[in-house]
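Box 3.1 — From sequence to structure: Sugar kinase
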Amino acid sequence: MVELVTFGEAMLRLSPPAGERLETAGELRCRVGGAESNVAVAGARLGLETAWLSKLPDSPLGRRVQTALRKHGTDPRIVWAEEGRQGTYYLERGARPRASRVVYDRENTPIQTARPEELDTDAIERAECFLTTGITPALSERLFETTESLLGTETLTAFDLNYREKLWTAAEAKRAYEELLPAVDLLFAPERDVRSVLGYEGEPEALAMRLRERFDCETVVLTRGPDGALARTREETVEQSAVSAETVDPVGTGDAFVGGYLSRALSGASVARSLAYGAATAALKRTIAGDAAVVTQSDVEAVLEEKTAEIQR
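Predicted structure (token representation):
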């Protein structure tokens, strides 16, 4: 049985070699990535049975996405469209003082027209958990409606705010979140989004408590970047420090955290253990090029053992 089902868009990521500009590069490296597919991959590599739902063009580029996700152990359950194009984004890595630059090219992609009746909703209903993120409802009005419908299932629902200012304004995102979040059981909320989009103020624990009470979530996980993470349940608050890492590629770090957390939470682990797994998976992702957390359970366990040894010294 599939334990975790995610829904969203995956794109082709095109990047020039380090130190080169998009406008002058003679070659581009192609990878596959998307928030929800990244979570499914991380979960699969850490022991979960996962599936990713989406709508892609029936083309060589769409099939490249399918092949990449299968390679990492997740099951891509795709609606193939005759019209539309494969979404892409271009990443030009910066070096101080030049910032990195991202250029999106995702207009007229098939997923923007996806309806619940096209998708494998039976998989969602049978799964232990269904996850999507704030990126998906931002792509079109149709996808907002589809996201709202899918979150209405009886399955445990998880949602990552994942605000993207290039997709919609903070005011638009706030209105959408306030409509969607009452249906969410497990909320992953970057602290920066809680403050800048929802407009909440206060200490991290107070933010998590306010979110849980406002939207009646079972658990709120507040992710805090280099300051770690904090989870608030109905019974307790649990904190987790970040795990330091040498950064090769930061893209997908948050998705790796979510995938790592869910890999333990859906296996019956405690909130503390799930947070630790999320932090370790996120740290490992920063050392890996590309969007996906190409990790193993032994990788994560080794990081946690080293972290424990550091604390005991």
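Summary of the box: Residues 4-312 form a domain with the UDP-N-acetylmuramoyl-L-alanine:D-glutamate ligase fold (CATH 3.40.1190.20).
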